Amino acid sequence: MTRARWAVFAYHTFGARALDALLARDEAVVAVVTHPDDPAEGDWFESVAEIARIRQIPCLAPASPNVSGVVETLRDLAPDLILSVWYRRLLGPELLALPRVAALNLHGSLLPAYRGRAPLNWVLVNGERRTGVTLHHMTVAADAGDIVAQQPIDIEPDDTAFTLYKRMVKVGVDLLLESYPAVLAGTAPRVPQDHARAMVVPRRRPEDGRIDWAWPATRISDMIRAVTHPYPGAFVGDGPARLRLWAASTVQHASSGAAPGTLLAIVPSRGITVTAGTGVLLITRVQSAGGVEEPADTWAARRGLRPGLRL
Q1: Torsion angle (degrees, nearest 10) of CA 121, 232, 88, 143
Q2: N or C: fewer beta carbons within 10 Å in the chain?
Q3: Cα–Cα distance list, 58 to 29, 61, 101 (Å)
Q4: Whether the predicted model's global pTM rises above the 0.85 cut
């Protein structure tokens, strides 16, 4: 049987694992389109470009995938399928018209919820208890095409963006491998999305990690776990007064009449408790501006902080 010809638009560990999985099945990946690996983002994720180099697959990394050179290169390669996984640019109508069978995207949410960028982080910011992965047909509108398959993922109370991402990668790759043969055979479901229920989230930037002590403790805790390592982190203050909050949890059934942001106690070997708008936080790891990450109780003791101080 003739193998399908794939053009894969991919980035990050999710994209790398999906590409690896297709190659392990001996699928014919005729081209890879990715983003240049950016040292400013760290070295915690796998490189799609490196896999393409090792496997000697033609690899492009254009600023825009929709330039004529990319479109013509892929047209000459005559792909049966286009697959996008964690790729950060929208594909235009010329690209979407190229594949003989389908142009598919593997998206990190249960569409139509959380269309757009950074769905992984946004579900934690918003305190969701469930997310998932969706394989869907691409249209010119982001994440709006017909659904082929979905798989839900429960969000655990102690999940961070990193732990959730690791599970999402595995679930997403498994979903792809289970679903694409039916797409090729023309027997896969194709379920239109309910656009009235669509929720579109924007890209997140480092500055979006700012918290307000007046928020409820649960909201602050959710923000911290949504952007903790390897992401830029949640923070309060500016300049020399900026304090990054790397880990925290809520103190169950605790309340305080103190103003939000008040240091309530330094708890040796555990952290510091701080009043929120409603509830109390136990903050366990922090980092001062220009300093190193350290236990929150060590930081507070080293600075001579006392209960009753506003942070």
Answers
A1: 10
A2: N
A3: 9, 10, 21
A4: yes
Alpha helix locations (H) across 114-160?
119-125
Peptide bond into 240 cis (omega under 30): no
pLDDT score recorded for residue 235? 98
The topology under which CATH files domain 206-302 is Methionyl-tRNA Fmet Formyltransferase; Chain A, domain 2 (3.10.25)
Contacts of 64 (CB under 8 A, 6+ apart): 70, 89
List of the chain residues with pLDDT < 50: 1
Q: What is the pLDDT of residues 148-207, one digit of tens each?
A: 999 999 999 999 999 999 999 999 999 999 999 999 999 999 999 999 999 999 999 999
Helix 48-55 × helix 12-24 angle, to 10°: 30
Burial of residue 106 (CB within 10 Å: 0-12, 13-18, 19+) is buried
First to last CA, the chain: 67
Each domain of the chain, given as residue ranges in start order, spans 5-201, 206-302
Q: Give me the pLDDT at residue 2, please.
A: 59
Domain 5-201's class? alpha beta
d(CA 47, CA 11): 7
Distances (CA, A) of 5 to 16, 139, 186: 18, 20, 16
